[in-house]
């Protein structure tokens, strides 16, 4: 209620102050116009009947916004994080708008917010947290954008528009230094080549030390653990600090424009990153969770406890193995589980057993147990010593050709090819043990072709866009995950292939100055292929069910203990345990290529009222969808069919007002919305495998208020308020509902529980004051305050990952020399050093909770010049 009153009071104050502000108006325009292309044509953002937060290049620079994730604090009902659980890379974007998004990077999980670079869709979240060195503007479109932008824009879209070449020679350069030995250089130059051919080139680079420091664990037993290089990984790079940056990006553009009917722009961009992993902390340990391994009530001939009450999960099994005598291990039939790790199918990674090493009378081979000794209160220290790297190469080529057939008809073509190659690795256990270490490789390429027909009719009262779109991508993702010193060794090669085409159109008709209508729709056909190869290189199930020979290798035949002993000549163990591939007995995923097809129609209807030139009231109804796919992260066989899931769908009603008042000294935009969110893709648990299913529905409703006020000359105040209520309205019984066996570590999900990555309230106030000096220069003082209420970072609402209500403050002081030839900025971010978890994961089987903190307080000093 307090926040509701605050919003009402703020709006009333802004409107009531209009007469006073009118008396102080200056002759010059106070609030600049922002032109956007949210509807595929250039328009003033105030004339577009969509809730849009738009940021110009100047605003981004002054607020020290250097990546897409940096926009998070400025846009209401938007959450943007650099990095997702497990990925360990800040180049991965986790985007949620109005409660809908995706917090994953895997190829099988498509984003819920579409990212567009100069009109080209970026299909993967890897590499989507774009650097913004030469951006003209960024548009954040909220709500389903299925009609004009297509699939996977169910929550919204973020459109990045880069700088176009100018017709005169000019350029800019800036150099920044700051906390953690940061050095950042950026330069852009426009070079006209002929009277009709223009070029621009931008280069940007950053080197910054990580803010989380790895320290050695002060116990000699740490050296007895198997090094992480003993296990399969995507790469074996590591670092003494995490959370650092080392990257370079380049972009070139050629634009041909002779003043005639045809213009063409050709682009090329390249990014290379070779940085340590995202800073990752161990937040909690759970070594004593009951489970099915090595139970006292094990089935005869096995180490399996079907009640999961007297045995262990992987963390507890590790402690049991190293701390138990041979007799105690034999009493639970766990000799194979505690014996040599690996199988003959991965001979290069076979390791000695763990059994009894701490009780064999030889202290020289003792191992550290898994417990709370590895927890460190300081958010910027860790005992990790495993993989830490993110290596990304991303590049693309594009061409946009526009032909003006007549004054009222234009044809536009956007052609693009993009490719990403990525390796990422993170030590999530924060210890010298290989308890939860993850690494990945992902390679992807995509081609896209879009044709647009842009037209006007009836004396410009009718505007329309008709289009066709084709998209194809191929790629592969390889997962490497090591649990509990190799007791589970997930190795997952996966291949993907997607082909998509669509037809779309939208008509905007304004028969009178008062009234306008919008109608549009998009029909999409999509085909997907997937081939999974997930396997456990330790062959743990065979050892669990008594199928392991004494030397730890998989016996070709064995008894299946859930039935009477198999007679000679019976089925091999892999068949009895439902392993699907006789050619590779450790493979848990069904071999072969899986195929799915999707079709969708996403319509939009809207109406606009224009009571005056500077006020628009609008209402709209729109739909969007996020495509389906397959679960890939299996730890056990799940039959002969690859587990798949279908689309998510959203239907949104929105009403809003956009107004520019007092000769553009006050701008007030407001939107209210409600969304019916169907088929939410959630984790359900099948055995020990987290499996994705369309397991829930949700209702989302809220409002957004964005105000820009220029009450006196030189002073501009930006304000934004977002309120949202996003909660589940139905859940399948199999959904992950407070699944933790440990009381008090998860709030769980249930009907009425809130959606993740979604704050009820977000409030931002950003005053900017520019003081002109007698020499023609100026001082600019800028402040940012963002208040965000509690956010749950994961679906199951782990308490250790909860982001508490917080207030963030940034500020800067800039001196602009006469004629803006050069400038000097001193600024600071997170001035109160407020720390919270931005992403993380809870893995009960490995006995770990891990997360990434936001960056600490930092300062920067930037020198910029123009020529």
Note down, in words, how this protein is organized.
This protein is mainly β. It has a single domain, classed as TonB-dependent receptor, beta-barrel domain (Maltoporin, Chain A, Beta Barrel), CATH 2.40.170. It has eight helices and 43 strands. The strands form eight sheets. The protein has a 22-stranded antiparallel barrel. Strands 3-9-10-7-8 form a five-stranded mixed β-sheet. It has a three-stranded antiparallel β-sheet with strand order 4-5-6, with no helix packed on it. β16 (245-257) and β17 (262-275) form a beta hairpin. The radius of gyration is 29 Å and the shape is globular.
Strand content: over 45%
Average pLDDT for all residues: 91
User: What is the rounded Rg?
Assistant: 29 Å
CATH level 1 name: Mainly Beta
Count of spatially separate domains? 1
Full CATH superfamily name? TonB-dependent receptor, beta-barrel domain
The number of helices is: 8
Based on the structure given, which CATH architecture is correct? Beta Barrel
- Secondary structure category: mainly beta
The fold-level CATH name is Maltoporin, Chain A
Helix content: under 10%
Main sheet properties:
22 strands, antiparallel, barrel
Q: Unreliable runs, pLDDT <50, ≥5 residues? A: 1-27, 557-569
Shape category: globular
Taking the alpha carbons of the first and last residues, their distance comes to: 53 Å
What's the β-strand tally?
A: 43
